[in-house]
Amino acid sequence: MIARVLSIAGTDPTGGAGLQADVKSIAAAGGYGMGVVTSLVVQNTRGVQQVHTPDPDFLEAQLRAVSDDVIIDAVKVGMIADQASAAVVVNWLRNLPSNISVVVDPVMVASSGQALADSVSADLLTCATVLTPNVDELAALVGKPAASSRAELIAQAQVLAEKTGALVVAKGGHLADDDRGNTLVNATGELAHAASWFVDTTASHGTGCSLSSALATRLGLGESPQVALEWATSWAHEALQYGEAQAVGTGNGPIDHFHRLRRQAKSGLQNPAVPDKRNRHQPVVKASGEHTRELWEYAGESLDRFGSDGFISALMQGTLSGSQFTFYIEQDDYYLNIYAAVLARLAAAAQSAEERSFWAESVTGCIAVEQGMHAQWNLDPSTVHPSPATLAYTDFLRAETGSDYVVAVAAVLPCFWLYAQLAAFVPDAIPEDHPYKDWVEAYRDEAFQASTARAVQIAEGLLAAASDHQRAAAQQAFWRACQLEADFFAQALLLDTL
Ligand SMILES: Nc1ncnc2c1ncn2[C@@H]1O[C@H](COP(=O)(O)OP(=O)(O)O)[C@@H](O)[C@H]1O
Ligand SMILES: Cc1ncc(COP(=O)(O)OP(=O)(O)O)c(N)n1
């Protein structure tokens, strides 16, 4: 399904805020974007210069042109400059079918300081399914000073929810906290929270417009307000992180609305033949000689794909959605089960008693981790179905560990080595309310790093003694496994993109 979403908003010729940002956000969130202009705004990344508001009749004619022709699944309302425009929009909204979600972003003042509206119509607020005021707008709407803590913000949002009957997103973008996330509130209090860890950026123009449009789209797709807010917050958080790279304007630049789609398009592209041998990542577990040093060079591209620019970054920041995390855990559980069986084959094929017991201990370790997961996350393995990416990895491991021991060791090595590398991505301080704190901290496990060092050492010894032909096959197997490891991690982020 594609949600047909209408934005009713003012314009931004530089495309960072207002209607232009809304239409991009709607597309990025999986909708078909439409736009009715309330005011023509002369603005850029440095600020607002002029506002021209057309006659209310012209606004009404635009609204009718859309609703006479198109079935609308959701509406986002942004800048409404005056009461006459608000009255037209309210009248039009009241004639919509009651099942259409309406997100009202009560825009008052641009972040650059200029006023965009006289005031916000009380009638408009009562037409909303969800309201998305920022800290200052919320304070103005409930007649209180701006909140300086999350608790105060939630209390004010609760007052607004009582007054209007709408759900209110208490947006923490302007709080001074590490978590600038968004809390969904109704008249009785907090319903859900979506974290957004602070991004230090000079490109945050239009974040509020974009968040509310993405939220409207996800509601139009049929998601619950909680799930829709989680999606919109994590998407906006990602878009904030990559805004500066667009180099748009000399002031507060726009967020990158399409970063996620670009990254995903890239992750679908695989270079099947020539590995990029430049690896900018310093290994947490060092190579043990020239052969494993060369293998490490093959891992760079994969690490880029799931480390700093993907799943692991979202996991570390705490912005991975609950459904993405659950999916990952389930697939990991399936994977580890097969991985244990594959390690058992290595134990059987090992060439010394010490190596045999190393692989056998790894089998036991793998099973312990898997069982720990069942207990901690309440997994029922009989209900977990492997995804295509998971199966591609496990099938590959089964195939590559069937004959040559050197190739087999190279094929299982990325699961040790790349996993141990995740320690490099763990932030120094993990906030207490980080949703995946325990999981993320486990990446620093020193016992696992010691096992990885031993696996690397075994691989080095085998490669040193191998024939040229065997060494080339082992390198190929290592590189393929790195790619599959990256695909395995990347898949969770693709899960609920649209
Ligand atoms: N620097 C930031 N770091 C992390 N998240 C942010 C940042 N700026 C904005 N956000 C997220 O985007 C949402 C909307 O941004 P905000 O600045 O609050 O809205 P507005 O643009 O309406 O003032 C915030 O609630 C927050 O979740
Ligand atoms: C036409 C128009 N509408 C709304 C805004 C304000 O956008 P917002 O997302 O709140 O972002 P910043 O003001 O923080 O950039 C706008 N500038 N123009």
UniProtKB/TrEMBL annotation:
SUPFAM superfamilies: Heme oxygenase-like (SSF48613), Ribokinase-like (SSF53613)
Keywords (A to Z) from UniProt: Thiamine biosynthesis
Domain of life: Bacteria
Domain Pyridoxamine kinase/Phosphomethylpyrimidine kinase: 12-256
Region feature Disordered, mapped onto this chain: 267-286
Its biological purpose: Catalyzes the phosphorylation of hydroxymethylpyrimidine phosphate (HMP-P) to HMP-PP, and of HMP to HMP-P.
Species for this entry: Rothia endophytica
Protein's recorded name: Hydroxymethylpyrimidine kinase
Residues covered by the Thiaminase-2/PQQC domain: 311-492
